[in-house]
Amino acid sequence: MNSSLKKKKYRCGWCEGDPLYEAYHDEEWGVPVYDDQTIFEFLILETFQAGLSWITVLRKRENFREAFDDFDYKKIADYSEEKIQELLGNPGIIRNKLKVRSAVSNAQAFMEIQKEYGSFSKYIWGFVNEKPIQNEVENYKEAPPTTEISDKLSKDLKKRGFKFVGSTVVYAHMQATGMVNDHEIKCFRYEEIHPVL
Q1: Predicted TM-score of the model (pTM)
Q2: Contacts for 115 with CB less than 8 Å, ≥ 6 apart
């Protein structure tokens, strides 16, 4: 069959037209993540995204991975001033002094939560009663930038020493890691990641 005759998959409007964005949307965005290492990676990338577009961060993701020791929070928590200066001189990442330093303090705060809860995953998923919230978004522009839950989570993270975790950043994190399914209902991924109840 001629591939051009195949029915085109419908995707959420925000990712259309960029192969990197589409791959991220098709394979990762909205898939529930319970692994602490992956949750930490998303959290760090989201904090660097604050005030920028997600595609900007996505294009630099591999550079971030290399610069930040594969997002190993144990190593990041111990970064020296020398390592911080090295990161600030790295043109492959977003060289924001406050964000780079916050990656270190956020890694430390992340580990404190692990100590208290056994895992960071257990802590963060507790805010949605351990299961993804299934929204019914018709157009991605209608998805809220924040919710009552993201407000609550943001406030708690800040209280625990996290930085760059405003409610908008936290909600974006919840969407990315599948704590909430904000795929458009006609998007092919909506049903694929919607658990069978």
Answers
A1: 0.92
A2: none
